[in-house]
Amino acid sequence: MTPADAPAGLAQLRSLHLPPVDGSGQGEVVLAIALGFTAALLVGLFRFLRDRRRNSVRRAALAELAAARPLPPEARLVAQARLLRRLARTLRGDAAASGQGADWARTLDGLFATTFFTTGAGRGLVENLYRRETPDPAAIDAELGRLFARIGA
Fold first, then answer.
1. Among the four 15, 36, 75, 142, which has the fewest Cβ within 10 Å?
2. Using one digit for the tens of pLDDT, what is the confidence trace for 55-71?
3. Residue 80 forms part of a structural domain
4. Phi and psi (nearest 5°) for 91?
């Protein structure tokens, strides 16, 4: 349209005309939006439940570690060792919790991403659990508390 073809007054302009509605495209758009929204809700629910489970395992492990603090040193080490077995079983399954010796130490190091159980004071929970000399349970408690706090993080 050129300026010469333009109507002289606004009264001569036509109103806007929308394309005819035949309903063929609108249903598919609404369906796609609904499916996308449903998928987003399902992903959010899955992540929420997974994080909640990890957080509950962390809370339970830290509470049980705190409950073992007043025990005598030997009983405290046994309680810590039992707690580690249960944690390994909960987080990695029965096969992971059935290890012995150096294999068990490597499993724990892999579970917590550390070397505490193969080269640190955590060896007392793996190799020296039933020996006469007991490692410092307070130091082990502090490190286990730090490791347990990272569960699921």
1. 15
2. 777 888 888 888 888 88
3. yes
4. -85, -30
